[in-house]
Amino acid sequence: MLTILLISFLGACLMPLLAYVIGRGAGLVIALFPFGLLAAFVSMAPFVERGWVKGEAAEWAPWLGLDFTLRLDGFSFLLCLLITGLGGLVVIYAGGYLTNKSPAERARFFCYILLFLSAMLGAVLAENLLVFLVFWEATSILSFLLIGFEGRSARARRAALMSLQVTAFGGLALLLAVVMIGHVLGTYSMAQAIDRAGELHASPWSTAIVICILIAGFTKSAQFPFHFWLPNAMQAPTPASAFLHSATMVKLGIYLLSRFEPVIGAESWGRGALITVACITMLVAALQALRAENFKSALAYSTVASLGILVLLVGLDGPAASVAMIGFLFAHALYKAALFFCAGSVLHATGLYSLRAMGGLARHLPLTALACAGASLSMAGIPPFIGFISKEFLFQAQLESSWEAIPLAIAVIVNAVMVGVAGVVTLRPFFMGHGKVNKVQHGETFSLVMPPLLLACAGLFMSLAPDWITRVAIRPAVASVYGRAVEVDLTVWHGLTPMLLLSFVVVSIGAVIVIFWRKIHVWLRQRTRFNTYEIESLWEASLRNLILSSRQLTELLQHGDLRRYLLAVVGGTGLLVAWSVAGAGVAPDIPLLGELRPGEALVALGGLGGAIVAARARTLLSAMIATGLTGFAIAITFLMNGAPDLALTQFTVEALLVVLLSALLLAVPLASPPTRTKAMRGRDALLAFGVGALLFLGMMDMAAREHVSIASDFFGRMSLTSAHGHNVVNVILVDFRAIDTLGETIVIAIAAVMARSLLRSRGSEGPVPGPEPVHFSLQMTGRWLSLLLLLASMVILFRGHNQPGGGFVGGLVAALSFALLALAYGVNHAQRVLRLRTLTLVGLGMLCVLLAGVPGLLTGEPFLTHLWWEPGGVMPALSTTLLFDLGVYLVVLGAVLAFHFGLQREATR
Amino acid sequence: MTLLYGFVGAGIFACALYMILSRNLVRMLLGFSMLATGVNLLLFLAGRIESRQPPIIADSARALGEAADPITQAMILTAIVIGFALTVMLAVLVLRAWRHAHSIDSRNVDSAESLGTPQEREPADD
Questions:
Q1: What ipTM did this prediction achieve?
Q2: Global confidence as pTM
């Protein structure tokens, strides 16, 4: 079976290419492929008729419980015969039907149909529920593609989307059910799930599982309230409608429901739900079938009613129900496909849709009329056609079941309507109203006539000589549905039974409907209220509302106001922290007050004062100065608490910030009207205060606890002995955690590239106008001051390993020296002095940083393991750390200058 | 002293938050710069301020004696530089926004929003 499935999928991809080569007769040739598959299945008949089950498996993803397991039993076998047999006929018919399409479109259609056929085979053969789900969804998607085959028509697109939405919704429900079953049983085997229905029933998930399975089955098989997609699906080309939307795909829901009948039946309400939904579906569909104006719509609604009957039969208990279900499924597939073929031929030949406009076609399309008559007689349940036998079984099942008379009464009415529809679709277009249609666009062709005629004949032949099909397909199928062998007697004459009487009643009412069809139809059409209550419009409205509300939600969340985004971030973070603090349930510790050093306290408070002034400042200039004040105060604080490296860096950064930001402040207005109302400012202050207070409490709690310093102690011990450095901070940066530093250097390099690309706009390359006149003293001393700064930066770089300093600080100081040059003599001058372009500096720096790691790599150590060379004597010790620090120095220098030059140019433009 | 420094750090942090919530882009930028300063001070506090000795090994010693925590200092050192780069990057962006929209009010810098939703199309009818 695995081989058949594989061949089927491969063939589905390759065979349609023949449509390019052969042209019009392609259908006949390609049809050999499904017929070949049919033959392959028929050859397994001796195996199946003994009641055996054939299993095959291939490993797929065992750790997910997902193995490609297949299983062929009677029910699967019957469906495989239907799928491949009808598939072949559909391909032949499509070859005659799509004559006005281009070869490419024909090939596309054949490809979809054959892929669909393969997916159906996979679905009915699958044993693993996950595999089943995959194929189930594949049929939904192919149905979508086929309904939307005429992609240029808006109605086809709408119908395709609707069917996909409904069936994919069902697919999701099926996925849920499968996952829940796997969760409860620990396996995804379908047979296990059915055998262990009791276990499923005992679990707390059972109700949810059954509901999900019901939704999946109802959506696929177009049961109320999901029935509306099927009549719309008639937008598909007729061969696809015949194949998917009456004979095979919609039966997949029935297949699922009947497979899981033990699981559904285990729930007290399970069968009741099936029968109730089936009855509602039948009534709604019967009513709509009488209202339908269009040949295909009438057939579509009668299909919905037939599916309702099948669901009803799944819901009924007793062996007769299983016999009736299988019999009806088989008979319906034969006659409904034939009727769809006939409808398609009429449509193709006349271009007419409406039943009322047609008439007297028997003269033009005699063989089609014959096929239609045969199929209709079967549908109406007139002996000796197979439809009669299946109807007898239906009534027998209902009489024998433990259910009340209401489903029986509904079944009688609905069957009568089916008789009526069968009569109307045959008599009106073909045999009544002579002269309504006098001309057809073309006569009958072999491809268009053979499939329906063959199916109609099969309906007659199989009821007259039922032995083979009963033995091979029907009996094993019933046995696998019911769980044990059931005697099936497929003969036309059972004697005078209550079922025969009911059949007689049905046919009589049906005849009345045929006679008064026009009056009933027109009367029903005038009742427009039916349209208002259609589920379809509800569905559309809910879709519209979904889109509308998601748009509103998006507008609510993505409002485009930066301030509110930040409020959400800050407030959300604050709430999370507060929540976790409250959740911990312990009050934060507060450290001891300790000694208070007045000088340092004054500096720190000065920093806080600067922050407050900055927050309250009216103009940007004062805000910037106040911010700088805070920065300097904190730098002094670092200096007084044993962090000279930090102090040096912070001082330089603050100085550079003044230089760089003043370029920005020169461009933008310094004082602009407040952007927040007073209330907003109050709220913001409250929020900021709250988050700050939380942070304070957290910090204090941390400071009050013991200081864990294992890593610091380690670095302090090893710094000199293994890394040859006295300044532990610098050793950590360039040696112990050099990879971190490398990352940060890369960040700075990226920032430089970004600045360059952002500021490199039109006209920014040319020389900028000379500098504003600066103070005499700066002009006189600037050159020497910057030279001094540059020298200092180099000293800071080189002594960094043992004394405060290093690449970061050195680079910043060097940048300051060039910034001073630019301030005193203009950017052009500073660039001339620099000679290199800023990004070249950054690149050189990155190169140094990366090269510094290579020698260590060459000695077999990890990247960035530093090496030392100490010649002794007057020669200084050399190491790769120096190269590393030099790289950092160059990157920082280049990046800061890239920003500085760019900002200066952009600001003075 | 810890208490005081904690108070100052958290205070700077709160002031910076208040500035960031402004719609004036330059004020936001200064706020970000100050936020980095406040956080650096708090980070410094996490390494404790028990010793005022810099973490530099004396010439006579082989290992670090009583000194300030070197790890937090190494972290803060890079944090200062990265914070500076971030601030300057913001400055570049603000300047570009000013050139483009001629406004430093964040509500007026809306080129991204004014593009509209990407797939706003009415379904076609036949």
A1: 0.92
A2: 0.68
